[in-house]
Amino acid sequence: MVTKNQIKLVVSLKQKKYRSQHRLFVVEGEKVVNELLQAGAKPFKVFVDDAVLMGKFKDADVVPSKILKQMSSLTRPNGVLGVFYMTESQKDIVDDWVVVLDAVRDPGNLGTIIRLCDWFGVTQLVCSPDTVDCYNPKVLQATMGSIARVNIVYVDLEDYLQKTNLPIYGAYMEGKPVYEADLAKKGVLVMGNEAKGISDEVGQFVTKRISIPQFGAATAESLNVATATAILLNDIRR
Amino acid sequence: MVTKNQIKLVVSLKQKKYRSQHRLFVVEGEKVVNELLQAGAKPFKVFVDDAVLMGKFKDADVVPSKILKQMSSLTRPNGVLGVFYMTESQKDIVDDWVVVLDAVRDPGNLGTIIRLCDWFGVTQLVCSPDTVDCYNPKVLQATMGSIARVNIVYVDLEDYLQKTNLPIYGAYMEGKPVYEADLAKKGVLVMGNEAKGISDEVGQFVTKRISIPQFGAATAESLNVATATAILLNDIRR
Question: Do B227 and A116 touch (CB under 8 A)?
């Protein structure tokens, strides 16, 4: 059984303010809920709108489709909604490659970058406070279960970059071609905002400016930040 | 002045059937309309909803916002809507790398892949007939002006692959790591459907199965097809 207070709580989690207050976030869909459970994320509650699905989730609550639709952030809810506890972020300095995001605003981009960190074994993702919230439903829809395996912190980047001993690489349109760059075994990779790139404040800490060479007509749009992150992480790990 | 027939025509172009019949497609936004014009695409008509913007486009027609909203595929129309003539696709065998898509269904993925082809100087993109239409508004929104610089054909892939003399590479989860693959100077890169990968029918023509090695937990979702294309094209061109 679902209580009125639970419904109210889940609906409130659409807003960042209440996610931070309750330290809870919502993911939707059988696959991603299962992935999070398998990755060891701690569930607060799983809701399903169909008794058939319930057997697949321990302690799931069946709710009418109408209620699930109310709780859901999707235009077409898919029958499974999981509420999970946020994990405490570890702010330790990590001894491997770290990805740093300077004001990445698009939820799909952040979601893809989290998935890429997971794929390439980057366990620490450091975001500026003005980067989109990683528990935003659209981010979670794009990350799949990766959110449980990548440690994400929101900190002042100038503070963070000042403290690290690792070489700091930054992606710039006019940087050195990544093929020629001397990529260290450990380092920090800074990726900038979709429209403005890396800010001057953050850029002053970047010791090596790198770029992805273009082979087509010079008029092409720059690469999307998630695409560029994919290429650079692949080059870093190869 | 816009006529009733013109409005009806533009609205009809939301459907693939009418785009094919009239050989016209629609893009929206000042930036992308400008990019297409600069890339040499032939405009049928540019509509703007603001006299201020009109000065920026030769022969643009001013229409009331209400009408532009009717013509637009966007939830929030942005004031500029361009109708362009499709170019005749060239079905010549290209003497360079060619990207082949086997049933890529997501418009955002196709849009990103077109942009990537443009970035990496791949001028020929060959799609299976069940790949999403490249003139779909959501594809065009993701490609920006690249649609004018990449030649896109929809053909039977078995026919096409049978005829080519180039080595045929295909992206598989269990392929040979791309770092170890012997990448030719010219070749065909086949990318598969988002859920099913490359079909068996197309796969029989693939002579070299390649993959992008994973460094994180083995449970991570596979890479998105557009992301994988980015990494592979970068490796091909390096």
Answer: yes
